[in-house]
Amino acid sequence: xxxxxxxxxxxxxxxxxxxxxxxxxxxxxxxxxxxxxxxxxxxxxxxxxxxxxxxxxxxxxxxxxxxxxxxxxxxxxxxxxxxxxxxxxxxxxxxxxxxxxxxxxxxxxxxxxxxxxxxxxxxxxxxxxxxxxxxxxxxxxxxxxxxxxxxxxxxxxxxxxxxxxxxxxxxxxxxxxxxxxxxxxxxxxxxxxxxxxxxxxxxxxxxxxxxxxxxxxxxxxxxxxxxxxxxxxxxxxxxxxxxxxxxxxxxxxxxxxxxxxxxxxxxxxxxxxxxxxxxxxxxxxxxxxxxxxxxxxxxxxxxxxxxxxxxxxxxxxxxxxxxxxxxxxxxxxxxxxxxxxxxxxxxxxxxxxxxxxxxxxxxxxxxxxxxxxxxxxxxxxxxxxxxxx
Length: 389
Ligand code: ADP
Ligand code: MG
Fold this sequence. Notes:
Layout: H1 5-14, E1 22-25, H2 28-38, E2 43-47, E3 60-63, H3 66-76, E4 80-83, E5 86-91, E6 95-99, E7 103-114, E8 119-125, H4 132-138, E9 143-147, H5 156-165, H6 171-190, E10 193-204, E11 209-211, E12 215-218, H7 227-230, H8 240-247, E13 251-254, E14 259-263, H9 266-278, E15 285-288, H10 295-306, E16 313-320, H11 325-338, E17 345-351, H12 354-363, E18 368-370, H13 374-385
Parallel strand pairs: 14-16, 16-17, 17-18
Antiparallel strand pairs: 1-6, 2-3, 2-6, 4-5, 7-8, 7-10, 8-9, 10-11, 10-12, 13-15
């Protein structure tokens, strides 16, 4: 789960991490008042959307007067911000009006799970700011990494080691940095975060570190034990299809292709996508209906696929184990009653109650293209999506 920068900064404050003074506002007048209240010669108006790269996309702007802050806010709020991370754009419902900070240096600080070594990793770079993605590609050696033992968390010597490597040698700055790094590690574990990122962590002209940007992503599987964090969710920032899937507890990820997939089990879902690609097609989604699919859930999943205009053909690939084939058939028939099945549907059913499932589909009068196995189904789906079946 993602949250907004202003929410992440609230959490930072609770952990006593240094953040600029700021006020979140929902309209131009409030923005003007906020700028007055902050009282700094320059304020920064920052669009609150669940995407990075806002600076480059015009979502972070300096204002030299409260009136200007109001004007910028009125231009942002109610519009969408398109960034390279999210080309379709996300709605801007509020902006953070923040005290302008005198930046001397910008560092990158990130903490996430390194799946290759099964440990969290703290990453820091002196080349922080808006170009960090470029740096990661062209000069990865400029990003210093330290792995964290999950049983004990980050140790102070590790933080000091990183600090020296990125050129933080001043005694005062060093102790501030170590404190920040230690706090991040504590937060990461306590909050079940999957990512904490400060980009940039700035060194000010006054010789202080301040977290200018703040990002926290949370591990969805651990949210049940963080009710307060769950409440921070802003569903306006989530793709409507993914939101609907979440409502039904379906594992759905939208992709760029045109073959809608409905599969049970993540492994089979991955294999199905691979097979589609192998035969020259592109999956429109990853969808695992799981092992406990009821007719209602299958119907919801099916409607979800049909509501994606990119989908040109649907491939249902079910290996009935715990989820029985007759339930899947029932779900498809139920969904077809509610929404028009206006695209080719290829079905491969195998496993528990397969005969009953096939019979139900045959007798339903629906226009279904049966597949004898996965390869056959994938090939038919690829052809159908190209309009050649
Ligand atoms: P994003 O990462 O989405 O582009 P940031 O919050 O990192 O957004 O802001 C982009 C850039 O704007 C920062 O790298 C920094 O240079 C500048 N900036 C952001 N907040 C402030 C602030 N309060 N004072 C001065 N400059 C800021
Ligand atoms: Mg940033």
